[in-house]
Design goal:
heterodimer, A: 64 residues, mainly alpha, 2 helices, B: 246 residues, 9 helices, globular
């Protein structure tokens, strides 16, 4: 391992802004994208569940 | 033989692909995490300091995987779009649509990390060089594909229009790939060649391959997640969807 201290690791030999800016952007986007996709899936699921409940209520009222 | 072909075609229907995708997703997340941990460990703690670029070269461990995936996802997207156009299978168009945002993300990351690498090494965030310009065009192709599909209400027609755009855009992929050979560019040549030994330290190569596998598994997982949402959105008026959601 080439790092003598934690500070040296974060300094990246003077390239801290460039190295961490690259890895950081990847981390942020690659966390955000799955969360957005997950939300899209749960939104359509929720609306389908609501739709089915509405259908069932409708059916109950009509049979009464 | 015939039986196994029928088995495969079964997954071309959204009804059987939806649960299959759901079962596969956790495995791809697991693989992405495992390759990611190994890749990051090699990137920061095993790979030595570069003789010319110091620690700044470590950007390669995200720049190259993001660039590879941006090109590869485009080919896969165009393949699905073409298959949908030829065979009129429903899942194909949905797959193409699910892949586009992930491809755009990879192209954006490739450009972003490239700029952050270019500034300290070349002294410029951006140059209008063949490699960089063709990658920017790839990013716009993804955005164009997504905008075109979003602009057409009928999903089947949107698939067809998108497929034609995606297939025409494929010509850009070899241009990006060979740009460093065909033109005199500022961008360095390819790091890995099929017909000669890689021009880099073994550990650097391993780090890059681990990170590339991580990005690959990530892309599959997120695309499968998105295709599940798209299947439910498009098939919401069918009987099976009503029973698929509990």
């Amino acid at each position: 391992m080439q790092w003598n201290s934690v500070g040296e690791f974060f300094a990246m030999g003077g390239y801290a802004f460039y190295v961490w800016g690259s890895f950081g952007a990847c981390a942020v986007l690659m966390v955000a994208e799955p969360l957005l996709a997950k939300r899209r899936l749960s939104e359509v699921r929720q609306s389908l569940i609501r739709e089915r409940l509405a259908d069932e209520l409708d059916l109950q009222q009509r049979t009464q | 033989m015939r039986q196994s072909i029928i088995q495969w075609f079964r997954f071309a229907s959204p009804q059987s692909f939806y649960p299959l995708a759901g079962r596969l997703i956790p495995w791809f997340w697991g693989a992405a995490a495992a390759f990611g941990i190994a890749g990051l460990w090699i990137s920061f703690f095993v790979a030595p300091t570069d003789a010319q670029q110091g620690e700044g070269y470590r950007i390669i461990f995200v720049h190259v995987p993001a660039s590879w995936m941006s090109m590869f996802i485009y080919l896969v997207m165009a393949f699905w779009a073409g298959l949908g156009l030829a065979l009129n299978t429903r899942v194909s168009g949905m797959m193409a649509q699910a892949l586009a945002p992930t491809g755009a993300l990879m192209a954006a990351l490739s450009l972003w990390t490239g700029a952050l690498w270019g500034k300290p090494m070349w002294g410029a965030w951006w140059v209008w060089d063949a490699r960089l310009t063709s990658e920017l065009i790839l990013f716009f192709l993804y955005l164009g594909f997504m905008a075109l599909q979003a602009a057409i209400d009928d999903p089947r027609r949107a698939d067809k229009a998108g497929a034609i755009l995606a297939l025409v855009g494929v010509v850009n992929i070899p241009i990006i790939y060979f740009s460093v050979k065909w033109w005199n560019t500022l961008h360095q040549g390819s790091t890995i060649n099929l017909n000669k030994a890689p021009s880099m330290a073994q550990t650097m190569l391993w780090g890059m391959l681990m990170m590339a596998l991580c990005f690959w598994m990530y892309s599959i997982a997120v695309a499968l997640l998105r295709v599940r949402a798209i299947i439910l959105e498009r098939e919401r008026h069918t009987e099976w969807v009503k029973h698929a959601v509990e």
